[in-house]
Design a protein that fits this description.
mainly alpha; 0% strand; 14 helices; 298 residues; disordered N terminus; 84% helix; single chain
Length: 298
């Protein structure tokens, strides 16, 4: 397969989307600067795992990733600082459900605007995909779904609730440190109050994956032009953001979102001053890391 003649900006858009997922991992690391400074390598292997880069692609993919991280350091890390500073203020004052809902909506809107702005580049990317890469992507989706079933859908409801609670606690302990048995009991109660139906979440994953593969195949097989491809991707993005609002399962999704917010509020309510100070220190450390990373224009 020959190297794509798609402009570098188009390829960088894919990596930007990948970075959204990558940053969720990086911010869970105890040494954020160390993880971020190796993020280019992590992101390269992440992409390779989804599309199986060939020998001709590997060089320019690595180059584009380097350029992406330079851009990300220069333009995006200051936004992360602002988000964390807002979280610090909210934690100090005691956040409300509306505060957390606004935080969620802000992140969602920022992501949607980014994707819509990147439509031309996303169209270039879609038009460059080869059949073998689409097949590799489909197999990766299937493997991810099998892993989801293994982790989230094994045994009975009690086991699934316990697994979900334990995953949540890993994040809460990262922020607040260790909890007492009494605190854990209250958090577990709030965790179990969340609607639980992993079949619904799996079906939604599969629906999104099918939609992505359908668009990719249509663009490749019909050799669609750029404008037609942009229209398809625009619809795909919009559906991805609007789905939970317009789904026949809207009541379930709304209840799940509200319960997740209540879970976070419960953790903050039961946290001691020392635990909140731990969270403030953690956030300040990440703020300092992001500022240093932004200043380090490598």
């Amino acid at each position: 397969m020959q190297k794509s003649n798609m402009p570098p900006a188009g390829r960088r858009t894919l990596y930007c989307l990948c970075l959204i997922a990558l940053m969720a991992v990086l911010t869970a690391c105890s040494s954020l600067r160390l993880a971020y400074n190796h993020g280019d390598t992590l992101l390269y292997w992440w992409i390779d795992g989804y599309v199986d880069l060939n020998s001709e692609q590997k060089g320019w993919v690595k180059k584009d990733i380097d350029e992406l991280f330079h851009w990300h350091r220069k333009t995006q890390l200051h936004d992360y600082v602002q988000i964390l500073q807002t979280a610090q203020r909210q934690l100090a004052a005691g956040p409300t459900q509306a505060d957390l809902q606004n935080d969620y909506d802000e992140i969602k809107n920022r992501t949607q605007l980014l994707l819509f702005k990147a439509l031309p580049e996303l169209a270039d990317l879609a038009r460059s995909l080869q059949p073998d890469q689409i097949a590799t992507l489909e197999r990766k989706f299937a493997a991810n779904n099998a892993e989801f079933r293994k982790k989230n859908m094994k045994s009975d409801k009690e086991a699934q609730q316990k697994f979900r609670y334990q995953k949540s606690m890993e994040q809460f302990e990262l922020w607040f440190g260790n909890f007492t048995a009494e605190q854990e009991a209250q958090i577990r109660k709030a965790s179990d109050a969340r609607p639980l139906d992993n079949e619904i979440w799996l079906e939604e994953r599969q629906r999104r994956q099918k939609a992505i593969l359908t668009v990719a195949r249509k663009v490749q097989q019909e050799k669609l032009g750029k404008e037609a491809t942009m229209a398809l991707i625009h619809t795909l993005i919009k559906d991805g953001f609007d789905r939970l609002e317009n789904s026949e399962r809207k009541e379930f999704f709304d209840a799940a979102e509200a319960a997740n917010i209540q879970l976070i509020l419960t953790v903050i309510r039961v946290a001691t001053p020392a635990q909140k100070a731990h969270a403030q220190k953690r956030m300040q450390g990440w703020i300092d890391d992001f500022k240093q990373l932004a200043a380090d224009q490598r």
